[in-house]
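User: Please predict the structure of the protein below. I'd like the answer in structure-token form so I can feed it into my own downstream comparison script.

Assistant: Understood. Taking the following sequence of 344 residues as input:
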Amino acid sequence: MAKLRIGIVGAGGIVKERHLPGFTAIDGVEVVAVSNRTRESGEAVAHDWSIPHVHDDWRELVNRDDLDIIVVGTWPYLHRDVTAAALRAHKHVFCQARMTMNYADARSMYELSQLSDRVTALCPPPHVMPVDKLVRQMIAEGFLGELRHVRLTSLNAAGADPAQPPSWRQIAAYSGLNTMAVGIWAEILHSWCGYCRELQASARVFVPARPRPEGGTYQVAIPDSVSVLATFENGAQGVFHWSAVAPHGGGDRIELYGSEGAIVHVPGSGRIEAGRANEAGLTAREVPPGLRNPWAVEANFITAIREGVPVQTSFYDGLRYMEFLEAIYRSQATGGRVNLPLGP
């Protein structure tokens, strides 16, 4: 088994919490080099994970001849450029979600991936991963019957404090169109319910001004509340609401209602609630051992390289959720309905 050697561009929180432990636990995989926003932070990661090489310039890392894989862990503003450079250098690419800044950049990344024989993947969302196989199986077996209604709420107060400085997620120069966890949930909706054929959105910035750590005020343009009415390709109606300024909002909840039954999931519960249309109500259902789906994202990517299995989240999946985000912004700008797909 040939050794696979990894270079990391951007070793932030999720890279250190999930990807580094995941990749370094796999036989025949070695993390060789890292490039971070500062030399100091890069050296700290290298020290903690015994990574032999630290680069000040990510381009030097990407062009190393001894690397097989580039892990892109930066904020979205660099995802397209690092991915393009890595594919040109004939490297496999594992890119952190959120895919990139906007739909145009996502299409560029997707098209580049189609011109390459290298494996490309995005980090999948962990939100519903424990129940994902169970829900997919139940839908495939017809538990819901004809899907009619999809209701998603993601309400929290993570951005409610106006004294809190802006995070990178609230700075458009770093995050682009990415808004709260909208893209992540769009990926989940697509995988369970299919794509939307139209949507209409309303978005607000309820906390528009935030203090800069260095002094002064930053004017936030990325919405902290988004509501969407959508129609799926199969005709089902969707009602979605995301907010980061909703104290006691209750967190995340996804509800699927069909002609024959209903499935409800609250992420973090590790189970679903489900019921047939002729039953008195919903009952809790644990995930059977054979359908449990623990985090194995890094192992899946390596297996995709070595054995050709499908990746969990493809660049096409990312293109479609970035398209969903783009449609929200277009609808908000025009005040009207947007038809999907958007096209080139």
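That's the full token string. The mean pLDDT is 97.
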